[in-house]
Amino acid sequence: MSVAERARSARWRRLAVGGSALAIVAGGWLVYDGIATSPAARIARLTHLDHVRARSLASQRAIAPRQGGSRLVPFTPTVSGEVAEISIPALAVSAPVVAEGPVNGELTIPSDVHTVGWDEQTPSPGAPGVTLLAGHVNWVGQGEGALGEIGQLVPGDLVYLNWGGRETEWRVDTKPVLSPNTVVHPQLFTTQGPPTLALVTCGGPFTEVPGVGGSYADNVIVEASLVG
């Protein structure tokens, strides 16, 4: 692994979420809004929502994919700094993508959970290597993040990126990986090999930190290959 790749993998260990140095990796931190609910109640509520989402996702997968692979399409930025738009038909998701660089050696994930961050030190879509996109799974007061459901994706699901007017099509390769956020994945920070898209958010067990909020123990990682 090159010096540049080692530097990028170091950022994987400590990503600053929403500008807060308290966050670790894409797993992030969730700050409560003071609502007095027990952990058990929150878990039960989230479990119920997961079942509801699973049922709705089954019907959403009927959304027809676009035809033609790579093509030129209109692109009009909707948020400041937007460089692209990501669409995931299987999840009924469409969200702006903004470029995010390191701050004090850490990648900043957009504080708006409905916006996805592109690590601008990884390749742009279609170039050799891995294009890394990351976002919050959720945030109090904002709800679920744009990438919050990527753990529901299955091999064959399609992802579209409108990158400044050029739309590319990507196909999910394997089942999403749930990995402890302490584990570094060097393969996600390479500039070699076939074009690959990596989507990352947080997931797994949630640990509450009194007075701060808490953190998720794992990262959810989805990799997709360029179709056209």
Automatic annotation (TrEMBL):
<dbReference type="GO" id="GO:0016787">
    <property type="term" value="F:hydrolase activity"/>
</dbReference>
<dbReference type="InterPro" id="IPR023365">
    <property type="entry name" value="Sortase_dom-sf"/>
</dbReference>
<protein>
    <submittedName>
        <fullName>Peptidase C60 sortase A and B</fullName>
    </submittedName>
</protein>
<keyword id="KW-1133">Transmembrane helix</keyword>
<keyword id="KW-0378">Hydrolase</keyword>
<keyword id="KW-0472">Membrane</keyword>
<keyword id="KW-0812">Transmembrane</keyword>
<dbReference type="Pfam" id="PF04203">
    <property type="entry name" value="Sortase"/>
</dbReference>
<feature type="transmembrane region" description="Helical">
    <location>
        <begin position="12"/>
        <end position="32"/>
    </location>
</feature>
<dbReference type="InterPro" id="IPR005754">
    <property type="entry name" value="Sortase"/>
</dbReference>
<dbReference type="InterPro" id="IPR042001">
    <property type="entry name" value="Sortase_F"/>
</dbReference>
